[in-house]
Amino acid sequence: MGKRLATPYHEKLQSYADEYIKETGNVAISTKDLAVWAIKTDRWEPPPDLVVRICREDFAKALREQSITDKHGHPVRANHVARITKAGKQLHLWSDIRRAPRRHMEIAFTQRREQIVGDCRQLKRDLDYYNDIHPGQKPIQKCFDFRDDVVEGDFPDEMN
Predict the structure, then answer these.
(1) Nearest C-alpha neighbor of 77 from the set 87, 69, 85
(2) 54 & 89 share domain
(3) In what helix (H) or strand (E) does residue 61 lie, and over which residues does it extend?
(4) 38 with 75, same domain?
(5) Same domain for 63 and 107
(6) CA–CA distance, 85 with 132 (Å, rounded to integer)
(7) How does residue 15 score in pLDDT terms, banded at 50, 70 and 90?
(8) Taxonomically, which superkingdom (predicted)?
(9) In degrees, to the nearest 5, what angle opens at C-alpha 58 toward C-alphas 108 and 3?
(10) In which domain, by residue range, is 110 found?
(11) pLDDT digits (tens, 9 = 90+) for 47-60
């Protein structure tokens, strides 16, 4: 997974967040307060395709949250997304796990695992950085071996 670079749009939003912090003196901010401020101060206006994007995101969230129950009574995600490129365009295709072709599920599972690994790498970098800039404090440590956590999910809920 390569290094993520902020888009010019995101860089602009990041600079607005810095301005907001300087202007208000707040060091912990909510995105809601930040959005209200950006709109009121004419720093942000909705892009033309906003309604379609919100609708698309709502569908994705609904599909992602839909679950079924396996034979052991465990919840299983019903819908899985696979990011593919077709004719030079990136598509996010959703499929129900009960009907999805094997190739779709292989792609979806691989991409979800890559997201988890990426999140863990970023968490480690963030932890290391925080610990480095606070040398006088006991380091915050987190375990990245999830085997016990994963196995624990196989037990009945009353045992968790």
Answers:
(1) 69
(2) yes
(3) helix 50-65
(4) no
(5) yes
(6) 40
(7) very high
(8) Bacteria
(9) 50
(10) 46-159
(11) 889 999 999 999 99
Please state, in angstroms and rounded to a whole number, the distance separating the CA atoms of residues 154 and 145. Answer: 17
Write the single-letter amino acid at 94: W
Q: What is the pLDDT of residues 100-126, one digit of tens each?
A: 999 999 999 999 999 999 999 999 999
Q: How far apart are CA 69 and CA 76, in angstroms?
A: 6
Question: Do residues 144 and 124 make contact, with C-beta atoms less than 8 angstroms apart?
Answer: yes
Same-domain status, 95 and 144? yes
Quick check: 63 and 94 in contact, CB under 8 A?
Answer: yes
Write down the residue that tokens 């892009």 correspond to.
47
Is residue 86 located within the same domain as residue 37? no
d(CA 145, CA 60): 30
| 98 and 69 Cβ atoms separated by less than 8 Å | no
Statement to judge: residues 128 and 149 lie in one domain: yes
By 3-state DSSP, what share of the chain in percent is helix, strand and coil, each rounded to 5?
Answer: 50, 15, 35
